Amino acid sequence: MAEAALLGIDIGTSSSKGVLVSADGRILARASRPHETSYPHPGWVEHDPESVWWEDFLALVRELVPAAEGREIAGLGVSGIGPVLLPTDGDGKPLRPAILYGVDTRATAEIAELTEEFGGDEILRRGGSALSSQAVGPKLRWLAKHEPEVYRRTEMLLMCSSYLVHRLTGRYVLDHHSASQCDPMYDLAARDWAADWAARVAPGLPLPELAWPTEVVGRVTAQAASETGLPEGLPVTAGTVDAWAEATSVGVRRPGDTMLMYGTTMFFVQVQSRIEPHPALWGTCGAFPDTDTLAAGMATSGAVTDWLRTLVDGDFAGLVAEASAVPVGSRGLLLLPYFAGERTPIFDPDARGILAGLTTTHGRAELYRAALEGIGFGVRHNLEAMGSASRLVAVGGGTQGGLWTQIVSDITGQEQQIPAETVGAAYGDALLAGIGTGAAVDPDNWNPITRTVRPNPAHTERYDAYFRHYRDLYTATVRIAHFLAGEQRAADELA
């Protein structure tokens, strides 16, 4: 019998990644592909599912499949940014670009409307989360109000992973975790759609069948095999949102485990056996039937550092080296990283980035370190809202280089474990497929911890004062930020 291999594909905000993995977790091949994200209006963030999701999927699969070299590909797992809203017709053809997750803030009026309609406390109790820009329900209401013809033609509610699953297998299915982010349309305790509320939020819309991320929900059809080069009949698991696949990839599966994902945005997933809903966080199903998760997410992180790198015409390695020579506190700078509003724990789409303390003596090294520290303060703000974590595991591209993770540990006062593989959600997709098909060998030990980042107590003490002022800076400037956000929208409308 040929040795088994597993395939994992993840579609991210600014790039897509794929891996081919042996049954015991060794990476046999990896591939990546950058893509564009569309910002058609302030507060709007979109992807074209054909040119971004599907074309990336095809390119990655065509690069990875030949690396199997005689191994039998035993399963395919997929994940993607989420929760997103992609309305399609009955054949799965997109009717408009996909509306992305919490960074897209267009549905603020609908959030308020639905909160009033169903009651904030009852939404939190039943669905696990207060309504925010992360929720799909308000975006569906927005679609019905602002693009009624698109809504009238909508027969499927797809997300990134379920779009790929439908293209590959023909199945209209969504994993429980993704569904639990369709607030207020999912009942967390019942592990099912809240049919009564869903009928009011999205009248007439057929909802997908539900499955767990590890469940095999279909097999690659002949047509999909011809288009992709994948074997016909290949088992495909339900998939999920990228952050939960990434948490799985690094062993964050047990109560108390917490993942901190360094990426274009910063994301947190804490596993619990059953959650106590928190108004400043998202409560969801976990990736596995016996778990819930508390989640948090910053609207920007790597997006800010990339913006600054472009602004000063630098490269990451050089900026990290320069910032490493700058002392704690960036010589008296303090940055609010709310460059695209903020998600948890303040849920303020009109928050804006602020840099306080500037003088003519500050240069790009101080600015870059201040950006890393500002994001670190946002991490601490979220972790304090989540409560104590028994284990903090760091993943993502930002774990490379050492400075950023050290700053975060110094600010939070917490150790961060870094596993052998930080390739991300695609690796978790392969593991989920391996668990679902039974092909994974020793899935609990695929990705051992190889490094621990420990806080410097002297730095933590210095950062405590900065963190207090970080919290005060938002409160002191929020009215100005909201005024400026309104001015930005007005300027865009005149453009």
TrEMBL record:
<keyword id="KW-0418">Kinase</keyword>
<keyword id="KW-0859">Xylose metabolism</keyword>
<dbReference type="InterPro" id="IPR043129">
    <property type="entry name" value="ATPase_NBD"/>
</dbReference>
<feature type="domain" description="Carbohydrate kinase FGGY C-terminal">
    <location>
        <begin position="260"/>
        <end position="435"/>
    </location>
</feature>
<dbReference type="GO" id="GO:0042732">
    <property type="term" value="P:D-xylose metabolic process"/>
</dbReference>
<dbReference type="Pfam" id="PF02782">
    <property type="entry name" value="FGGY_C"/>
</dbReference>
<dbReference type="InterPro" id="IPR050406">
    <property type="entry name" value="FGGY_Carb_Kinase"/>
</dbReference>
<dbReference type="GO" id="GO:0016301">
    <property type="term" value="F:kinase activity"/>
</dbReference>
<dbReference type="InterPro" id="IPR018483">
    <property type="entry name" value="Carb_kinase_FGGY_CS"/>
</dbReference>
<dbReference type="InterPro" id="IPR018484">
    <property type="entry name" value="FGGY_N"/>
</dbReference>
<protein>
    <submittedName>
        <fullName>Sugar kinase</fullName>
    </submittedName>
</protein>
<dbReference type="InterPro" id="IPR000577">
    <property type="entry name" value="Carb_kinase_FGGY"/>
</dbReference>
<dbReference type="Pfam" id="PF00370">
    <property type="entry name" value="FGGY_N"/>
</dbReference>
<keyword id="KW-0119">Carbohydrate metabolism</keyword>
<keyword id="KW-0808">Transferase</keyword>
<dbReference type="InterPro" id="IPR018485">
    <property type="entry name" value="FGGY_C"/>
</dbReference>
<comment type="similarity">
    <text>Belongs to the FGGY kinase family.</text>
</comment>
<dbReference type="GO" id="GO:0016773">
    <property type="term" value="F:phosphotransferase activity, alcohol group as acceptor"/>
</dbReference>
<feature type="domain" description="Carbohydrate kinase FGGY N-terminal">
    <location>
        <begin position="6"/>
        <end position="244"/>
    </location>
</feature>
